[in-house]
Amino acid sequence: METNSYIITITAVFFGLLLAGVGLYMIRKTRHIKREGIKTLATVIKIKELQSRDGVTYKQVVEFKNVKGETVVKELDFSSSIKPKKTPPFTTPIFYLNEKNKTKIILANHQIESVLGYTFLLLGMIILCVVMFIQLS
User: Fold this and answer.
1) Between 103 and 2, where is the model more confident?
2) What are phi and psi of 120, to 5 degrees?
3) 46 near 88, Cβ under 8 Å?
């Protein structure tokens, strides 16, 4: 019985640390792009509908001018299961950051990455606290 308890504890700690780590990564990434990036208006020129075994998700393709005046067309890195209410073309504020020959973009008014990051961090911390409570009692 001791071995099973040990394995369960190690597994719970692993998942708690993993969730907290993913949450911190998401929060830091979003903050970095907002802090170091450039805010501008982009035009959503297309919404891609992607089929998966989980259902349909929607990915936006945006077009904007960078600080050099060049037109950039990029598909956003994330998708949503909620279809945007507006039909392209429409404008939306974005933050973009050019790093290592890659353009990273986040929607300025899209808080889902921050919410997910804090949710993962919180769940990870709760798991770790429960494990500590059980081990100390």
Assistant:
1) 103
2) -60, -45
3) yes
Q: Average pLDDT over the chain, rounded to whole?
A: 87
Which two three-digit tokens encode residue 92? 């939306």
Residue with tokens 């990029």: 74
Largest Cα–Cα separation, the chain: 67
Cβ of 38: how many Cβ atoms within 10 Å?
13
Residue in the block written with tokens 């998401």: 26
Return d(Cα 128, Cα 48) in angstroms, integer: 39
Give the Cβ contact number of residue 51 at 10 Å.
8
Q: Which pTM value belongs to this model?
A: 0.72
Residue-wise pLDDT tens digits, 32-49: 988 999 999 999 999 998
